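Subject: sequence -> structure tokens, single chain

Hey, anyone have a minute? Need the predicted structure for the following. Not urgent.
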Amino acid sequence: MTVEESETSNGRRLLGAVRGPQDVKRMSAEDLTLLAAEIRDFLVAKVSRTGGHLGPNLGVVELTLAMHRVFDSPRDRFLFDTGHQAYVHKMLTGRQEGFDQLKQRGGLSGYPSRAESEHDIIENSHASTALSYADGLAKAYALRGESRNVVAVVGDGALTGGMCWEALNNIAAARNPLVIVVNDNGRSYAPTIGGLADHLATLRLNPGYEKVLDTVKEALGSTPLVGKPMYEVLHAVKKGIKDAVAPQAMFEDLGIKYFGPVDGHDVAAMESALRRAKGFGGPVIVHAVTRKGLGYRPAEEDDADCLHSPSAFDVETGKMLAASSVKWTQVFADELVAIADERPDVVGITAAMAEPTGIATMAGKYPERVYDVGIAEQHAATSAAGLAMGGLHPVVAVYATFLNRAFDQVLLDVAMHKLPVTFVLDRAGITGPDGPSHYGIWDMSVFGVVPGLRIAAPRDAATLRAELREAVAVEDGPTILRFPTGAVVADLPALRRVTAADSVAGGVDVLAESARTDVLLVAVGAFGQLGVEVAARVAEQGYGVTVVDPRWVRPVPTELVTLAAGHRLVVTVEDGVRAGGVGDALAKALRDADVRVPVRDLGVPPVWQPHGTRAQILADLGLTAQDVARDVTGWVSQLDDEPIAPVRVATSNGDRAAKGRNGRG
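Reply:
Had a minute. Here:
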């Protein structure tokens, strides 16, 4: 049976017959047009049920088809930057069935995954890295005498990252065969900003580019897609611009050959450009002009982010299916605007993520006071340092996982100068479906070593608002405010607050207490409610638990040391890696204060956790109320023959014995 004759149970005649790249290579031009339509239908249908990165993948359908027709994956290596553009690549390499559980346990990862397929070589969700990988791969193949092609697709704003330009400089110097496909859709999450974006936008305004746009419109007019395509000129404003300059001069001055612009939605045009690039024998940039969200009206009409990464949604309308709830991000966004209303010195910074981090709310009201620097976290941190030196208080809003990229800047450019910069870390802790590269589990350990930096972890909306205000009130050094993703938990009022005379953090909240002082349970951030549930379970076994929320976890509040001295056992539970985490820091503080009380720390082991729901992963880690209560009961029961009140002893700087996995050793 030929490809043309095959039928499948999923109703997609051509797509259902694709089991690998070779099937795509055999198709006619007419088949490819129909296949592209089927792919878009498939993407919308599957992502509408599971959530995922829709807009970026609707825009790379023809581009990916052309790549697989010209090159021979997996011998030729494909690298996607960022990795969320790889859904179509997954579909063409035998992974269609996995989309029923996209980003769910047992299903496909939302990014390239080496465990899934030999067609994936890097597992990247952090942007602007692929060109550096590609440079190294091309050098390795050259040294080994292997004739293999390396193709890097760079888009969704990745070229705004500094690593790309460092890599381009080295790629040009090495002169190895390497094809760089610039997927130019004018956007990252939102419209891409910066000098390079302006440069490419200028190209879109010249007459040659207009011919490309006309071709796009003609080609799309006969393509059966979900919803009627909208025929807007791709990001171009047809006004009189004189002396339009193409970017070939910029790239060729580096020593990199430039082809383009190419209609990224024309398979034949893309094939032609890629074949020429493949035969060039050196580094080549193929500039593909695409439209994010193409072919699905709700994505095309979504000005915010072209349905970049929606949760489950209604196919007909594009509206989210989940019931509306107050998100952590929205609480931050609203409170930041309230603070900005009161303080004209407060400014906002984000790295290409204004909508996802909530900073867009402030930008809507005070556009002149918010700066989106593109995918450039290092620059964001040091630019914030400059703003602080100039008398302002910057609030830098990024995902927790992305601030790792700017550790040196936070350490030496901000903290060493004792500058008042507040970093707000969304998606802190285990975020679930996004997978290990997105988990924000490192920040409390990594940044806990920075002198003078203070870290707050709110437990609910009320404490988020309060701690954000406390953070921007700090004038003698940087602060970090971290919170998880998703719906904010119900407010959990404190029974009382313990404040020491020398407190620099504003006190420790007591959430539950008992007449007995067996256990001090330190519940970090959103684990506050879990701590209260644990106390109730342990009380059923006859033991008393005092549950506290330190509010500011770094530096360790002196109040925690005082409270610990009055208990038989201290247990910490945190949504971060244990090594160097809050438990480690508290144990050291107790040693330094000559308080001998055993400490058990519960948290995330320093290993790569798979993707799945947050609840599934926390259960795997033993970070549920039932698991923690069982552990606490077991540990305190071992102390029954010891005095209830621990004694203070002479100075000792001995290290605490190493604990087992999750503090159970």
